[in-house]
Amino acid sequence: MKKIVMLIGVMVLVVSLLLPACTRGGAPKGDLPASISYGTLPMGTTFHTTGIAHADVIKNHTGMEVFIEPVSNPVAILIQLLQAKELDAAITMGFHTWYSFGGKPGSAPNIRDLRTLFRWTQFRYGYIARADAGIKTMKDLKGKKVSALWPANAAFQDLVNETLLGAYGMTLKDIVAMEYSNPAEGMRGMIEGKYDAHFGSLAGGAMHEELASTVGGLIIPIDHDPKIMDYITARTPFLAPATVPAGTALTKSGAVPVVADNSFVSVHKDMDEYLAYTLVKTLIENNAELVKINPGLAEGTLENATGRPEAPFHPGAVKYYKEKGVWTSELDALQNKLLAK
Predict the structure, then answer these.
(1) Which of 18-22, 30-34, 109-113, 143-147 is most confident?
(2) Which residues does 77 contact at the CB level (< 8 Å), separation at least 6?
């Protein structure tokens, strides 16, 4: 009898040593699916290139196939597909998450099933002006032709434009707000002289380089004065102070203060906890590999992962953050507040 008990004990020990590390130490247990779907914006966008990099790392470290599902603008479509469980995961923006999760009174749809895995980057926004337009400050935009209206992303554009202008005592009626079909067309119109300035992403790229090398251009500072930022964050809580660093095509003379919206990887609340845990762990702990694929993913670290969510974290993500010791009492209070919405 003693020999049988000893034999069983040895077998249990061997099996426990063979188990994957992620199934011990309190981590959730489960089986991973053979594949998942991953929603992004169209090919050529930052969302799409990020999704491809994520897919490569997930496949390399878990064996799961990741099928990239690009959809047309706006990002809100991705959130609706998550809600309908037609996507397993998607790259989302803070604004659309906030708006869809009921951040704006009376907003629709009021999506309650969205959950956050982690923040992967910030997108900086603001106004770019031609060098010869006589625009140096936000107040100088008054009376100027500004490509500010993008119908495909109207909810975001209208709210943020009104808020940023409002912080300086203006409205959209104080500028000559002009419509554009896509960001590249907005920038192109400024280079060609159709617009004096353009509102949009400050991520840089070929159009910024072309503006700088032809007619010249600059990013208009958005002051980080407490009064200005209090006005902005009270109306658009998904925005935060940010800086475009010196040395870019449009910041050769120094860094420029602007605002930024966070971008997240989001899922449905019913995603399996082990799958959610594994996605967070895999993408955060292999960030160096992601950066080799796409240098723009350098912000996707553990230190940045929990920054300002607009929808609650998934339990699998919470589990990972608690294991890593980054889940704070402030995050716990925010999580409960978001869950109570």
Answers:
(1) 143-147
(2) 71
Angle at 162 between CA 180 and CA 115, to 5 degrees: 85
| 102, 153: one domain | no
Torsion sign (Cα): 271, 275, 278, 283: negative
**Is 268 strand, coil or helix?**
strand
What DSSP assignment string belongs to 212-249? HHTT-EEEPP----HHHHHHHHHH-TTEEEEEEPTTST
Q: Is the dihedral of CA 222, 224, 229, 231 positive or negative?
A: negative
DSSP 144: -
Give the model's pLDDT for residue 5: 38
Position 130: which residue type?
Answer: R
For the record, the structure tokens of 284 come out as: 């955060």
| Mean pLDDT computed over every residue of the chain | 88
Q: Are residues 288 and 224 in the same domain?
A: no
Residue 169 DSSP SS3? coil
Mean pLDDT of 127-149: 97
Phi, psi of 73 (to 5 degrees): -60, 155
Tell which of 261, 278, 306 closes a domain: 261
- CATH number of the domain bearing residue 313: 3.40.190.10
pLDDT band at 7 (very low <50, low <70, confident <90, very high): very low
Owner of token pair 């920038």: 187
Q: Residue 238: inside a domain, yes or no?
A: yes
What does the alpha-carbon distance between residue 21 and residue 64 come to, in Å, rounded to a whole number?
Answer: 18
pTM listed for this prediction = 0.80
**Tokens 């845990």, residue?**
277
Q: What is the largest CA-CA distance in the chain?
A: 93
**Section 18-46 average pLDDT:** 71
Q: Above pLDDT 70, what percent of the chain?
A: 88
Q: Which domain holds residue 52?
A: 33-122+262-339
pLDDT of 12 reads 36
